[in-house]
Amino acid sequence: MPIGLATLYPSPVIGHRGACALAPENTLASFRQAARDGAAMVEFDAKLTADNRAIVFHDDDLERTTDGTGPVQDITFEALSGLDAGGWFSPAFQGAQVPSLEEVLDCAQDHDLAINLELKPCPNRVEETARVVLATAALQWSADDRPPLISSFSRAALAVARDLAPSWPRALLCDNLPDDWREQAAILRVQALHLGDVELSPATIAQVKNHGLAVAVWTVNDPERVRFLLAAGADAVFSDDPGAIRKALG
Ligand code: G3P
Ligand code: CA
């Protein structure tokens, strides 16, 4: 059964890693900020610790957004929880932690936020990451809840999602439209493409839409560009400051 656009994207503005222009990305503070700013949907990145806990974190390494060092896939959840994931952004967020996936799902449910869960596997842990992350999310989902939108740059991860959670919508993430997008969309049975805003043209958006797929564009922080993309037929955009974009759109 085709999934309606309103189910995929309850609003045309999706908070990227929460509201990561205003609070440290992928932390509970960032998701709460997005909710305060009226976002209806947030995107975040999910991967695994060394001891197989599903966490919400973007990079493969700890350096950029924590006071730790080394690969995320080598640290246990307990050790990760001792790191500061907020001080790099601003002293006001000192002490923020890298959240578990469960904490982020609780937060989204508490604030009535729809979610786009990006499977972001560390190297060599692609299928395992998809399996554990989806199983963790499934434990918190009931049939009455709006289904999470699962996305990934990894085709192997999306194939796991297709097989383990077939009723949850899926989106293939791409920097640019790849030559084999129609074939991959059919194989992975995705409902949407999430395209990078790299010289993205109205013709490309129309091509994908005419094929029956939804289009969301990342990451767009200029309100004029957002207006242009939505007028060109994009269904949604990812923004680091969803409140500001919502306000600009009126
Ligand atoms: O899901 C859209 C966007 O988040 C993909 O790129 O690197 O920000 O995860 P990235
Ligand atoms: Ca992401």
From TrEMBL:
Q: Name one GO molecular function term.
A: phosphoric diester hydrolase activity
Q: What domain of life?
A: Bacteria
Q: SUPFAM superfamilies from the entry? A: PLC-like phosphodiesterases
Give me any GO biological process, just one.
lipid metabolic process
Q: Which Pfam family is one of this chain's hits?
A: GDPD
Q: Which residues form the GP-PDE domain?
A: 11-249
Q: Check the record and name the PANTHER family matching this protein.
A: GLYCEROPHOSPHODIESTER PHOSPHODIESTERASE, CYTOPLASMIC, GLYCEROPHOSPHORYL DIESTER PHOSPHODIESTERASE
**The protein, known as:** Glycerophosphoryl diester phosphodiesterase
What is the native source organism of this protein?
Answer: Insolitispirillum peregrinum
